Each structure stands twice: as structure tokens, then as C-alpha cells.
Protein 1
Amino acid sequence: MKILVINCGSSSLKYQLIDSETEHYLAKGLCERIGIDGVLNHSVPGKDKFVDESPLPTHKDAVSAVLKILTDPEKGVISSLEEIDAVGHRVVHGGEYFSKAVLVSDDVIEKIGLCSDLAPLHNPANLIGINACRELMPNTPMSVVFDTAFHQTMPRKAYLYGIPYSYYEEYGIRRYGFHGTSHNYVSHRVAKLMGRPIEDLKIIVCHLGNGSSISAVDGGKCVDTSMGMTPLEGMIMGTRSGDLDPAIVQYIAKKENMSIDQVLDVLNKKSGLLGISGTSSDFRDILSASEQGDERAKAAFEAFAYRIVKYIGSYVAAMNGVDAIAFTAGIGENNSLIRETVLSSLAYLGVKVDPEKNALRGDEVMISTEDSVVKAFAVPTNEELAIAQETVALLQNA
Ligand code: ADP
């Protein structure tokens, strides 16, 4: 089947047309600056990249441009829209409504809207993308795959915060977790690589990208994850602070004469690696600056690694053991130093890193030695493929 995967942001739209049999993409691209001016970057394996700077006033125009380029006789990969079997949409927040992907219906759209309060920057943009596709391809089945869904199996003790229970009941304040599609995909890949049923395994997945989260997956089900009601909690990230004492918010507000919104903006956009280093949110910059002796960049790297080590330790405790630890996303897949630094702090678990395998990049690889008690892996994540696969499964079971 050919599945068009759409990830719609407030001014951008990422797409991939995936052949679910070969598991490869036929074409992919990104529309940016929607509503500002507009630029579409389109690429097809084996062909030159194509850039179109035609205006994209609305998301509907962006979806139209994507459908047009996919069916273009020269730059396209399909001869008509009929060849698209389904569209899979990434949606950030499914609240407590959705514990798995679902086919789009009016009821589903309404519930995604109800979750907008919890993800005001993302859900409305996701909905715009869904509605634009529904208008332009009214007869094509569509699915929605939620970032939060995989984490809905967390037990109450893991998702409740220690605050008045009425806030959970009235406002839905609880841990939801994000990057669920990636945690689900990677944990299944690890089970496959180990040649064991996922039901028998305790896996910790470290998704380390610009946004980072760690999850504990016991028997294929998420039992805890580091992001919370919003993606601000947990790891030290590119620009997000991750965990901190909540009283700090008021303290900064007073000292800097800021509103709560302004402090939250600092914690989301000016903290993390960027905040500590004072120079960059990009991990590659942090690495090169610390190699050159920049103390602040070193401090950022150390704090980033230490937070990961602490979470892994707590998730080993939460699951009463661990069989495998996996690293994924931009930093986790590509950087051997962070994997080595983290895993060398886990010698107490019986993890032994194989330095040669850990130096490999780009492929799924077991980076621990054969006799390592706990296995470690680097696994490139592929959220688009996972969305396509979930969409195919939904269609087949419909
Ligand atoms: P997101 O999808 O959350 O925007 P990514 O998963 O693409 O983020 O990860 C981006 C991060 O990965 C950046 O901090 C970037 O520096 C880092 N990264 C990408 N490639 C490498 C590499 N080869 N070595 C180290 N870090 C890398």
C-alpha cells in the first residue's frame, strides 16, 4: 500500500509517501513558512532535490502543493491521487481519549479538538492538516497516530502528580508522555533484534533528539516515561530545562520581573543545552565546543548525560530489572560518546559496551558485547514508517 504520512505544524508540513511493502519512502518533503510566504522542499530517492517557492497562504494550499508535486509527471512518483491508499496523520496530544491510533471520523476530530487545551501549539495545527486533507481527498481513508497513545498504559502511580486529585479530575493534569510512536517502534525493533517476544522483555528506550524523552517498556507496554503533561518535563533537552523545582518558576519571575508565561518561555526555549552552554542548543556544537575546552559546553554535556543515567536507574527500579537499553533519535543514533558515557555509568547493571560496534553509525546495531548481561542498542527511529504501518494495520482490521 502507498501511505501518505503528514505531520502538520503551525507553519510547516512534513510529508512522506511510503510503500508499506518495501518499507521505503517514495518521496518526502517539507513545506515551510506557510502563511508567511512559502517554500516546498521535495525529494525523491535517486533524483535531484526540488525547491518550489510558490506562495503557501494556508495549510490547504500546502496540502494541494504536496499532492500536485507527488503526481507531477517529472518530479512526482504516482500518476494519480487514486494511488494513495490512505493518509496517516501525526497528532501530538490524544489526552485520555486515545490509547491507540484510530481512523478519522467526526467524533475523533472533536476529541482532538478537546485535547487542544493540553497542546495549544500542536493540536490545532494537526487538525488544520487533517481537515485540509479531508477536503482535498474526501474518499481516501485517514488515520491519526498520537504521540501520547503508547504511554496510556502507564499505571496510575506513574501518571499521577502529587497534587490535589481534583486537578487531575477537573483539568486532566497528569503525566501523558510524548514521542510514543518512536518509543513503540524502537522497543519492537529491539525485541526483533534480540530474537525474543517483546512480552518477555524489559526495555528502556532513550529518545535523544532536540526534544528528548526516556521510557520504560515492560512486556511491550509503557509503564513510565520522562515527559509529563507537556514535553517540558524530564531530560535536559536542546532548549528545554526538563525537571526542576517548581518553586524556581516564581523565584525567576520575581528576580527577573517576568510573568509566568515569560518564565515558561525561558524554560521551553532558552534553557537546556542552550541555557547551560550559553552558545547552542545543537548537540554537535556542544561536542565541538567542549572538545575545545569550553567549560560551559562541558557542563551542558555532563548534565545532559547525568540526567539520562539517573532516569535509566529509576526505570530499572520501576521495572525491577532491565533486559535492554536502546538509544535513538538525532543524538542517540549518531553520537557514540553519549552512549559510551551513559553506559559506562551503568556497569553495576552488567552492561559492557563493545567500542567497535558503538562506533558504527546509521544502522540498527547491538553496541554491547555478546556477554553483556543487559544488552544495549542503537536503533534509528522511523516515526513516519511507524505511522504508515499503524495506518495499514487499521485499514486491514477495519
Ligand atoms: P528533533 O526531531 O527533536 O528536532 P533530532 O532527532 O533530529 O531532533 O535530533 C537533533 C539533535 O541531534 C541535534 O542536537 C543534533 O545536534 C543532534 N545530532 C544530529 N546528528 C548528530 C551527530 N552526528 N552527532 C551528534 N549529534 C547529532
Note: The chain is about 40% helix and 20% strand.
Protein 2
Amino acid sequence: MFTRTQTRELRIGSLPLGGGAPVSVQTMTTADPHDAVALTAQIQRCAACGADLVRLTVPDVEAARVLGEVRKLSPVPLVADIHFDYRCALASIEAGADALRLNPGNIGGAENVRAVARAAQAKGVPIRVGVNAGSLEKGETLVSSALKHVKLLEDEGFRDIAISVKASDVPRTVAAYRELAEKTDCPLHLGVTEAGTFLPGTVRSSVALGILLAEGIGDTIRVSLTDEPEREVKVGLEILRALELRAPGPSVTSCPTCGRTRVDVRRVAEEVEAALEAWCARNSGKKCPHVAVMGCAVNGPGEAKDADIALCGGDGEFLLYVHGQPVRKVPPTEAVAAVLATLP
Ligand code: SF4
């Protein structure tokens, strides 16, 4: 286990952030910010996938009113994403937002910062200062820009602050968060911005966030993908599970297959994975099993010893193992049912 960097503790609705609280996973909606029905459905799907926190853009005061409606039905706390217009921040706080993402240097001067800081303080609403490499002013670095925004809030006596400093590549992202972790005790929201489509975005985010989390840096993560928010949540959870910062979820080990393979390992592994995910969601109090799907007897029996359940491929059929013991042969079409039948 990694030693976490100590940060100040905030509370976003019911969710603790920083101060040693578990690293949370968040995402952002893509639905129309004026469509309460679509937003609610998307937030519920994200929560069902395991999101701890969801952010919504609030481009105008009407969207803040919609956020208030959506908040009543949301199973997780909601963050209002504000750019430039402090009235959207005030309206979001009033409507019930659990946190804001806002850069106080961009909302039109000290009076407006004071108004937002006071309203947020009164309702216990934290603010995340979020700086991206694409929006820096001349001469600024990610860290200097973030700390400039933070100072504007702290000058108003506001301290419930989280920070993000995202670049679109791994080296700059890692360097910025390392520097920031040295300079502040605010909880850090980790992410690579504009990370890309599913595959490159997943790899970039996993590498950057993996390095930082393994160094104890980071209190909440968002994997930004040009994809569905639910997939961002799933990747975020897998990153935390890979680092053992989250309890294991559905876990399928499968071999890459080779010229020896005489069964459709890929299809069966994918079907088993989907079935396990559904089983684990239905049985949240139970331990998710580790299942191995292997192509042949070269590595199959060895993997079967480590797994709760294993399917070891033969010539057109699998041998089912439970806790390392061979049980019976099953045809590929019955493989998923055979695995599920062994679960408590
Ligand atoms: Fe090939 Fe067997 Fe190894 Fe799978 S377990 S990659 S089928 S040798």
C-alpha cells in the first residue's frame, strides 16, 4: 500500500475528500445542461457504474435551476462547473450544488469573488480551482496559475479548496502535480486533460494517474475520454483497483491466445466479464470472484490455482476448475452459465 500525502479534509455533500479519505472517482455529464431528464438518467448510469461524484456544466442561470431539479434525484453529490459568470456560481449554490469548479480569477473581479466565497462558505460548498495547460496566461505555469487563483479565495478567508493542474500529456501532468503537492495541502483532483479517445486516453490517464497515486499524490480522479462518461468511471475504478486503492471488483484473467488455442477464449472471456460485472452489481455485499479463462493446459491449471474459478480450454471445450480443483468439462456455449452456477 502507498503512503498517501496528507491533505486538508473537505466534504462534498456526503463525500469526504482529502484528509486520508479513500480516493474518489468522478466524471462529467455530456447531456444537454437544460435537459433534467437526460442529465438525471446519465448521472444515475454513472453512479451505477461506481462514480462517487459527477460534474455538470452550468453555462447559464437556467442550467443552475435544472441542476437543482437533478440534485433531488441524484444518488451522488454534484459539482457545478462554472466559467466566467459568477451569477451561475451563486445560482448553483442556491440550487443545491455540492461543490463548484471555478477559477476565481475569471469571474470579473474581487467583488464577485467575495460574493461567491461568502455564499459557498455559508452553505459548506467547496470550490475546485482547475487549471488546464490550454488556458494559461503568458509567463504562467500550471502551478503558479492555480496558486494565483487559490490565493484569491484564501484572501477572502475561504479554505475549502481542491486543485487540479491538467496537461494533455503525461510528463507535464506528473511534473505539475508533484510540484503542487510540495506547495499546498489542498486535496488534489488528478486528471490528464483532453486525453483522447478510449484507448490512448485510457493509457495516458492510467500512466499519469498511476505514477502520481503510487507516490501518494491525489485525492480524487477523473479520466477524461472522448467517450461515454460511464466508461470514464470504469477506467477510473480499474486504475484504483490496479493500485489496490479500491476493493477488487469483477476480475477476469485471460490469456492472449496463440496457435495452441482450440476454443474462442476472447468471446468467452468477454461474456464472463459482462456476467460477473452484473453479478457483482447485484451482490454488492459479497466478494467479487476472480475468474481465469485460459486457452490451454500450458498455463491454465497454474492460473486455476490462483483463481476462484477457472475455465481451461481444450479441443472445443473447457475444463471448469473451482478453487483449483477440476470439476467437469463444459462446452463454450455453457461456459458463462457454468461459472455463474458456482457462485454463492
Ligand atoms: Fe497459448 Fe495456452 Fe498460453 Fe493461452 S494459455 S496463450 S492458449 S499457450
Note: The pocket of iron/sulfur cluster is lined by residues 255-258, 260-261, 294-296, 298-300 (CB under 6 Å).
